[in-house]
Design goal:
The complex is a heterodimer of chains A (142) and B (117). Chain A is built from 8 helices and 3 strands, in the order ααβααββαααα. The longest helix of chain A has 21 residues. Chain A is elongated. By secondary structure, chain B is α+β, with helices and mostly antiparallel strands. In chain B, a hairpin with a 2-residue loop joins strand 2 and strand 3. Chain B starts with a helix and ends in a 13-residue tail after the last helix. The chains are: A mainly alpha (142), B alpha+beta (117).
Chain lengths: 142, 117
């Protein structure tokens, strides 16, 4: 079923990246050219085991490459081109989703005059959307 | 030593960081309250999924759910509690701060440890 989405693309964010452990690793590697496992452990606060699990997932997904097959703490890790692109897209999409769900104007203005809460007008004004009354319109335009 | 931004990322509050809950809480933070069907549409979640996340958020005291009858139909209204608003606001504030500290971060900031052997 195709879901038409106005924003809120969080549900579609790349979950491989969104997971906190993987996000930490990818972000760390995105600012280091390459890092050995020891260094990566130190800056992410992971121990050997907690690091190797998300790291091997990332490697399988082709987002990072680890220099040696039999890995020890001196093995070098870096993002692949796909990994770099993925984290950049993720960051852009995350910001975009947030702004679509909670436009800066709504965040700033919410302490001020509030359009009648819960009403279609209120929702429409805050989100700059057409009016959706109940779910009927949603079903009909799918 | 202070936690690096990466360490902080790894320690994000997973209850809030979950994509579906993040979408729900962020959408609610933009309005006083929203009805179920509106949330359904804007988050793109399925009914069952949205409903189960809302119950969990209610249990955690982050949202309040009010059901009322409008034209003989149930309308479900959802709003953030004060705790919920604080939680999502501080989540995004933390993410912004993390992004800035990642941009400023230098590998040299890490004090080297002598390697054994």
């Amino acid at each position: 079923m195709e879901t038409r989405n106005l924003g809120g693309q969080f549900a579609y964010l790349n979950r491989r990246v969104h997971d906190p452990d993987r996000l930490a690793i990818l972000t760390a590697l995105s600012v280091c050219e390459q890092a050995d496992l020891r260094f990566l452990q130190r800056i992410t606060g992971f121990t050997g085991e907690t690091l190797s699990f998300p790291l091997s997932k990332l490697e399988k997904a082709g987002l990072v490459e680890i220099e040696e097959r039999f890995v020890d703490i001196r093995s070098l890790v870096r993002l692949t081109a796909a990994g770099r692109q993925t984290i950049e897209i993720y960051q852009a999409e995350e910001g975009l989703s947030r702004r679509e769900l909670c436009p800066p104007a709504a965040a700033e203005g919410r302490s001020g005059a509030v359009p009648a809460p819960g009403t279609a007008e209120g929702r429409a004004t805050r989100f700059g959307l057409t009016v959706y009354e109940g779910g009927r319109k949603k079903r009909s335009d799918r | 030593m202070n936690a690096t931004p990466f360490e902080q990322l790894a320690n994000l509050d997973r209850r809030v960081h979950d994509p579906a809950r993040l979408a729900i809480l962020t959408a609610l933070s933009a309005c006083e309250r929203a009805d179920f069907l509106f949330l359904l549409r804007i988050t793109g979640l399925t009914k069952g999924n949205l409903s189960s996340h809302l119950s969990k958020l209610e249990e955690a005291g982050l949202v309040e759910i009010e059901k009322r009858f409008v034209a003989k139909k149930t309308q479900t209204l959802v709003r953030l509690t004060d705790a919920g608003r604080q939680t999502i606001d501080s989540y995004w504030k933390e993410m912004e701060e993390l992004r800035e500290s990642v941009a400023r971060w230098q590998p040299q900031d890490v004090v080297p440890v002598p390697s054994p052997g």
